Amino acid sequence: MQFGLLTTVEMITAMLVYIPVAYLADRTTKKPFVLITFLNFTLFPLFLLFSHSFSMMVIAFVIRGLKEFGEPTRKALIMDLAPEDQKAGMFGLYYLIRNVIVSVAAFAGGFLWQLSPAVNLLTATAYGVLGTIYFALRGRDLKGS
């Protein structure tokens, strides 16, 4: 029952931010919204690790719901940056590369979990930090319409 409640918290959080953030991102630059999304992906495993009560788990799952913060913005940025005649192919290539990386990470996570759940969650956080910093420094952006 608690996991169902936590999932509900995650989904309600995601629904509350999805459209307003997409609206704002269309009127400004997209990169800050994507960065906030990556930050939430990075913070979730850390909060999960240190959540030793149900109320802390609720906070962790609010953060998990905030992973949708820049989801429409990230997809729009991918399309905006793709060459005009290759948008569909670039979108597919992005998801191919992303899903291969996620699959390998999930597989590796199983081995890390056997060492310790803390090792798994801290490793996920570390990779999140690296990816967020990389995007902050090297990620491109376009002005909204």
Task: List its salient traits.
Growth Hormone, Chain: A
Account of the 3D structure:
- This protein has helices at 2-27, 31-50, 54-65, 71-81, 87-115, 117-138.
- It is globular and about 50 Å long.
- It has one domain: Growth Hormone, Chain: A.
- With 145 residues, it is mainly α.
**Number of helical segments with 4 or more residues:** 6
CATH top level is Mainly Alpha
The secondary structure category is mainly alpha
Radius of gyration: 16 Å
Mean pLDDT reading: 91
Name the CATH architecture: Up-down Bundle
CATH homologous superfamily annotation: MFS general substrate transporter like domains
Q: Note the main sheet.
A: none
What is the H-and-E element order?
HHHHHH
Using the coordinates shown, work out and report the CATH topology.
Growth Hormone, Chain: A
- Indicate the low-confidence ranges by residue numbers: none
Q: What share of residues is helical?
A: over 70%
> What's the β-strand tally?
0
Beta content: under 5%
In total, the number of domains comes to 1
Shape: globular
Task: Report the end-to-end length measured between terminal Cα atoms.
Answer: 44 Å
